[in-house]
Write a structure and sequence with these properties.
The complex is a heterodimer of chains A (88) and B (296). Chain A is an alpha+beta fold and 88 residues long. Chain A is 17% helix and 30% strand. Chain A has two helices and eight strands, in the order βββααβββββ. The longest helix of chain A has 11 residues, at 25-35. Helix content of chain B is 26%, strand content 17%. Chain B is globular, with a radius of gyration of 18 Å. By secondary structure, chain B is an alpha+beta fold. In chain B, the strands form four sheets. In chain B, strands 9-8-7-10 form a four-stranded mixed beta sheet. A three-stranded antiparallel beta sheet of chain B has the order 1-4-11. In chain B, strands 2-3 form a two-stranded antiparallel sheet. In chain B, strand 5 and strand 6 (88-93) form a beta hairpin. Classes of the chains: A alpha+beta (88), B alpha+beta (296). The A-B interface holds A 5-9, 14, 16-17, 41-42, 45, 51-53, 55, 57, 62, 64, 80-88 and B 31-32, 34-35, 38, 82, 87-91, 220, 227, 237-240, 242-243, 246-247, 250, 253, 257, 261, 266-271, 273, 275, 277.
């Protein structure tokens, strides 16, 4: 399992931590969105792929757009999802 | 180009006092307290004198920069830009500073509006060309409120006629559902176009203590400051914490926001890696010493 962290304003109850399943980053995001339909609009483009303007950190490592397709989130990792504009 | 105001410098407490977060908790607004945690605790700041643009950089000014240098923005190079349509943020082909809504849109009638669809690098490039730089967030906040704390540039009493926020267009708003309803009506009428206004439209009543205009709303403004937390121990949204050291601080809120996001001490953090949107602009600053040397 992995820990997935999202902005506190994405949920009405302010929940920020979820569990997810390890795997290739795009698949992790798609699965997380499918499991949490209320978050899908913030994560998935109309064509079903993860939105590219949303940023991801695995542990402390920021994953650039160009590396997302080849990034694997291993078990025990923390995946943090960061909006292109955070806070406010 | 770009009228500047000399800010005398001074000592002040940057950020929000504890009572401000209590006040936000008690207001009719939907965001949790932790969302504002990065504004606290207040930090003592000591600024030398500096100059800051009275207004955000306009479409006309940015057009002159592009005309003289052939500069291509990040959105120009990648071929798309970010707008918020009736379903949310979306990357749309052809969206750029001169076509803020995409193909078929232009900047006719917008030359005195703030330029949008500029990334942090685009804003920095313009500032260098103009012989200026981006302000630090400390300079930005001091120019907005001076040494004494105030919620908005003009004082502590909200007035929707003093700034370009969503409330100027839609009337009082307190829920995201109301906001989305307003925005859908805008998109249905003319598509997702920026609702910017002419710079200075709200001067004098809306000006800051030093006479800077449009510091509350109109466009989000990039600053030079690399995002950081005022105190690592302060309760804070976990994703804002991860933005520290990676993003750049954004100030001022925009036409998209409620009154609570356009406060003087409000902080946002933007991805500086080429990202921009139809609500993001900037203003410039300059060291006071440099300005003095350039005078005859």
């Amino acid at each position: 399992m992995i820990k997935i962290v999202i902005p506190s304003v994405w949920n009405q109850d302010g929940r920020t931590e979820f569990e997810g399943t390890e795997g290739p980053l795009p698949e992790v995001i798609k699965r997380f969105a499918a499991d949490n339909p209320s978050l899908s609009r913030r994560l998935i483009a109309p064509d079903g792929s993860p939105l590219m303007y949303v940023n991801f950190c695995v542990g402390d490592e920021f994953i650039p757009r160009s590396q997302r397709a080849t990034t694997t989130v291993v078990a025990g990792s923390t995946l943090t999802i960061i909006s292109p504009m955070a806070g406010g | 180009m770009g009228e500047m105001i000399r800010i005398p410098g001074g000592v002040f407490l940057q950020g929000s006092p504890p009572w401000l977060l209590d006040w936000l908790d008690g207001q009719d607004q939907p965001l949790p307290r932790v969302w504002f945690g990065d504004e606290t605790p207040q930090l003592r700041a000591d600024l030398p004198a500096y100059f800051i643009d009275r207004y955000p950089v306009t479409v006309g000014e940015f057009s002159e920069f592009v005309s003289q240098t052939g500069y291509q923005t990040d959105a120009d190079r990648r071929g798309f830009g970010l707008v918020y349509d009736s379903d949310g943020w979306t990357e749309r082909a052809g969206v750029r500073w001169s076509a803020p809504g995409g193909p078929g849109t232009d900047t006719d009638g917008y030359r005195d509006h703030p330029v949008v669809h500029v990334s942090w690098d685009d804003a920095s490039a313009y500032a260098r060309w103009a012989g200026k730089r981006l302000p630090t967030e400390t300079e930005w906040e001091f120019a907005c409120r001076g040494a004494g704390f105030r919620i908005w540039p003009w004082g502590d009493e909200w007035d929707s006629r003093h700034a370009n926020t969503a409330e100027l267009h839609a009337g009082p708003l307190s829920t995201l559902t109301d906001w989305r309803s307003w925005w859908k009506s805008v998109c249905d009428r003319g598509g997702p176009l920026p609702q910017t206004t002419s710079v200075g439209q709200f001067s004098g009543a809306g000006d800051s203590v030093f006479g800077c205009a449009d510091m509350a709303g109109n466009v989000y403004e990039w600053t030079a400051t690399l995002s950081y937390l005022y105190d690592d121990a302060a309760p804070c949204d976990p994703t804002v914490r991860m933005a520290a050291g990676r993003y750049r601080v954004i100030r001022g809120g925009s036409w998209m926001n409620f009154r609570y996001q356009v406060r003087c001490s409000e902080r946002m953090h933007g991805d500086p890696n080429g990202w921009s949107s139809f609500a993001h602009g900037f203003r410039c600053a300059r060291d006071a010493e440099l300005q003095t040397r350039e005078l005859p």
